[in-house]
């Protein structure tokens, strides 16, 4: 009997090929969309984490309160000792010091007069100590457009767009004009070693990146740093873990009213990132649910139509003496296999497209011009474990459910009308 | 004498609800069909012949009275028992063949045997016998869309006959066929009736079918109008 049903299933294209195509398409879209949303949200987090927030960030309480102003006058002092302690107490994290600052970049002509000038966001990172991996974290080598990374003290990189705007090329001198940690004016000369493009509009618009020791000298910040960033060695931000770590650190380290005592904030506790984390989790769940629900409706209807289309076949099987329950079960079994085959196929295709978008990305830089939020200009999907099974929810369950619903007609059907129906 | 009868109908009524009232489709039907009869329920549309065929086929139940088919009181059967009666002892032939289009001739005829859970060897022999009765052994791999109307109806007859049922119910079996094919089909059924002693009950108003019947039960407005037995010599 099973052989008979399988033969019918394989030969009747409208019973097998068409439903499998419909299920595959639905599942493919579900899997792809889930990977896409996960990737987009994850990229945005990671982008912010790598360039700005870390997975956790340690800074003074006062600095934390004025975070958006990049207040280096409120920076951590004796930060080397704090860094050592963090590395001992939280070995599962990678810790690094940074100084973020604002300033003016002046490009002089051959006589030393200002040729061009522009405001910049500065980033002092560990480039030359040989102990850190900030270069890899910020993907500097791959982001290089011209020149090379700073190889010695006194060298800096500019964002490529900024360099073009200032008409500066590698080898040119530029002057950082800013204020020191103590509030006095500072001027410090750098040689431009190269230019970079991160694909992050806010960074590409105008930034200067130099070794943290150079910035300490420039801004008079000996053994100080604006912030110490911690990154999960696994590379994935875990909100709950980061918040717990911050709470424990703060209860142990922060000292009452001392606004210069260090405090830790998780990514979600910085700026509006918390809202963004919540919103992204909600949206990710909503979009996935809506998509799963929509696809469930489509596939449920496909199952329903498939069942109704076989009214005649069911009728003749009833007349020949097959029991209603047997017919019902065999239809559900068929739809299960259809759903399973379509889900496997759809998941495979969906994962393939997700892999393409994960590998090559979708360039949205044109849409990001002028954006103030740190978002990637190339959207990439991210394949995660749920992508391997999420498509089976609409794929198998909805198909089977649709068939079950249409199959109720079998039970409600008056066998008495079979002759009339079959003659119709 | 009743025990030798395939069908015994006593005081049978069938009423259908229509709006707030009811419509009586069959009224006080009393009939006996002996084993091996070749009988027709004859009448115009609405005379109740298909309703009676439905009841005899355990597809419907009487509103009053009794219909005994092969010793089973149709009104008393559960859905499972009714399905089992159809599976084991009844064969159906429909006006529009109702073959499974994606299955071959062989598979269509084999289908009722699958429900009986017979071995593959038994099934093969029975299917080939049935196809030989209807003269279609050369078409076993063909599918219904590749056959003519007459050939399709012969497949339907083979499907109805393959399990050698005691009773075959045929509703307007020649309605979609031309005269030549109709006569071919009817001769086939007549031969099977004689050789296998299968009882055939037709619902028809087709003169070609009527001319082959050995008993004609005329229905009019749900009542038996005339019950005419044709003697072999007449």
Descriptive overview:
The complex is a heterodimer of chains A (424) and B (234). Chain A is α+β, with helices and mostly antiparallel strands and 424 residues long. Chain A has helices at 2-11, 17-53, 61-65, 79-89, 134-137, 140-143, 160-166, 201-205, 212-218, 239-253, 273-309, 311-320, 324-360, 392-412, 418-423, and strands spanning 56-60, 76-77, 93-108, 114-125, 144-147, 155-159, 173-179, 185-196, 207-211, 224-225, 227-232, 262-266, 362-363, 378-379. A 6-stranded mixed barrel of chain A has the order 3-4-9-6-8-7. In chain A, a hairpin with a 5-residue loop joins β7 (173-179) and β8. Chain B has helices at 49-56, 79-89, 105-115, 120-134, 149-161, 179-196, 207-210; strands at residues 5-18, 21-34, 38-42, 64-69, 72-73, 90-93, 167-171, 199-204, 215-220, 223-229. Chain B is globular, with a radius of gyration of 18 Å. The mean pLDDT of chain B is 90.
SSE map:
The complex is a heterodimer of chains A (424) and B (234).
Chain A: H1 2-11, H2 17-53, E1 56-60, H3 61-65, E2 76-77, H4 79-89, E3 93-108, E4 114-125, H5 134-137, H6 140-143, E5 144-147, E6 155-159, H7 160-166, E7 173-179, E8 185-196, H8 201-205, E9 207-211, H9 212-218, E10 224-225, E11 227-232, H10 239-253, E12 262-266, H11 273-309, H12 311-320, H13 324-360, E13 362-363, E14 378-379, H14 392-412, H15 418-423
Helix pairs in contact in A: 2-11, 2-13, 2-14, 11-14, 13-14
Chain B: E1 5-18, E2 21-34, E3 38-42, H1 49-56, E4 64-69, E5 72-73, H2 79-89, E6 90-93, H3 105-115, H4 120-134, H5 149-161, E7 167-171, H6 179-196, E8 199-204, H7 207-210, E9 215-220, E10 223-229
Parallel strand pairs in B: 3-8, 3-9, 6-7, 7-8
Antiparallel strand pairs in B: 1-2, 1-4, 4-5, 9-10
Helix pairs in contact in B: 3-4, 3-5, 4-5, 5-6
- Structural class from helices and strands of chain B? alpha/beta
Radius of gyration of chain A: 31 Å
The amount of beta strand of chain B, in percent, is: 25-35%
CATH class of chain B: Alpha Beta
Strand content of chain A: 15-25%
Class by alpha and beta content of chain A: alpha+beta
The CATH superfamily of chain B turns out to be: P-loop containing nucleotide triphosphate hydrolases
CATH architectural arrangement of chain B: 3-Layer(aba) Sandwich
Topology, number of strands of chain A: 14
Sketch the topology of chain B as an H/E string, one letter per element.
EEEHEEHEHHHEHEHEE
The shape of chain A, in one word, is elongated
**Whole-number total of structural domains of chain B:** 1
Chain pair with largest interface: A-B, 26 and 34 residues
The main sheet of chain B comes to: 6 strands, mixed
Instruction: Tell me the distance between the termini of chain A.
Output: 28 Å
């Amino acid at each position: 009997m099973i052989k008979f049903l399988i033969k019918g299933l394989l030969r009747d294209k409208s019973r097998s090929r068409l439903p499998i195509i419909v299920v595959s398409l639905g599942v493919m879209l579900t899997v792809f969309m889930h990977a896409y949303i996960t990737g987009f949200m994850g990229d945005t987090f990671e982008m912010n984490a790598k360039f700005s927030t870390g997975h956790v960030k340690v800074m003074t309480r006062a600095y934390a309160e004025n975070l958006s102003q990049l207040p280096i006058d409120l920076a951590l002092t004796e930060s080397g000792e704090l860094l050592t302690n963090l590395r001992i107490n939280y070995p599962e994290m990678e810790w690094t010091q940074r100084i973020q600052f604002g300033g003016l970049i002046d490009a002089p002509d051959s006589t030393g007069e200002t040729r061009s000038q522009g405001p910049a966001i500065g980033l002092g990172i560990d480039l030359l100590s040989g102990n850190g991996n900030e270069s890899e974290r910020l993907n500097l080598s791959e982001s290089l457009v011209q020149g090379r990374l700073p190889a010695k003290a006194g060298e800096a990189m500019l964002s490529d767009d900024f360099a073009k705007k200032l008409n500066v090329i590698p080898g040119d001198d530029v002057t950082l004009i800013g204020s020191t940690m103590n509030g006095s004016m500072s001027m410090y000369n750098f040689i431009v070693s190269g230019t970079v493009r991160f694909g992050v509009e806010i960074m590409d618009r105008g930034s200067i990146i130099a070794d943290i020791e150079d910035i300490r000298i420039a801004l008079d910040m000996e053994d100080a740093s604006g912030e110490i960033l911690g990154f999960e060695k696994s590379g994935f931000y875990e909100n709950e873990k980061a918040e717990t770590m911050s709470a424990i650190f703060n209860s142990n380290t922060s000292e009452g009213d001392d606004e210069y005592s260090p405090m830790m904030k998780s990514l979600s506790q910085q700026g509006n990132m918390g809202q963004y984390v919540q919103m992204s989790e909600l949206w990710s769940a909503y979009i996935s649910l809506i998509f799963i629900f929509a696809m469930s409706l489509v596939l449920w209807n496909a199952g329903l139509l498939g069942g109704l289309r076989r009214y005649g076949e069911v009728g003749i099987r009833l007349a020949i003496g097959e029991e209603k329950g047997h017919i019902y079960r065999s239809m559900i079994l068929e739809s299960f296999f259809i759903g399973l085959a379509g889900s496997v196929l759809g998941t495979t295709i969906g994962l393939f497209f997700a892999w393409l978008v994960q590998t090559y990305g979708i360039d949205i830089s044109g849409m990001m011009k002028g954006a103030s939020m740190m978002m990637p200009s190339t959207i990439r999907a991210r394949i995660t474990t749920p992508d391997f099974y999420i498509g089976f929810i609409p794929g198998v369950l909805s198909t089977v459910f649709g068939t079950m619903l249409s199959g109720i007609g079998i039970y409600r059907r008056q066998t008495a009308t079979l002759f009339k129906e079959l003659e119709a | 004498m009743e025990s030798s009868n395939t069908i015994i109908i006593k005081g049978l009524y069938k009423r259908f609800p229509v709006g707030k009232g009811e419509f009586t489709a069959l009224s006080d039907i009393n009939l006996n069909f002996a084993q091996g009869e070749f009988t027709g329920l004859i009448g115009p549309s609405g005379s109740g012949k298909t309703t009676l065929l439905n009841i005899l086929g355990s597809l419907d139940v009487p509103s009053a009275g009794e219909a005994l088919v092969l010793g089973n009181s149709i009104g008393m059967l559960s859905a499972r028992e009714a399905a089992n009666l159809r599976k084991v002892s009844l064969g159906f032939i429909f006006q529009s063949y109702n073959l499974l289009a994606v299955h071959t001739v062989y598979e269509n005829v084999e289908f009722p045997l699958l429900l009986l859970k017979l071995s593959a060897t038994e099934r093969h022999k029975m299917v080939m016998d049935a196809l030989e009765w209807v003269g279609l052994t050369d078409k076993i791999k063909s599918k219904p869309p590749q056959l003519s109307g007459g050939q399709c109806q012969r497949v339907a007859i083979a499907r109805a006959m393959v399990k050698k049922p005691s009773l075959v119910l045929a509703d307007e079996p020649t309605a979609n066929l031309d005269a030549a094919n109709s006569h071919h089909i009817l001769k086939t059924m007549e031969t099977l009736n004689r050789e296998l002693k299968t009882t055939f009950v037709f619902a028809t108003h087709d003169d070609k079918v009527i001319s082959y019947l050995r008993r004609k039960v005329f229905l009019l407005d749900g009542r038996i109008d005339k019950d005419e037995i044709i003697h072999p010599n007449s």
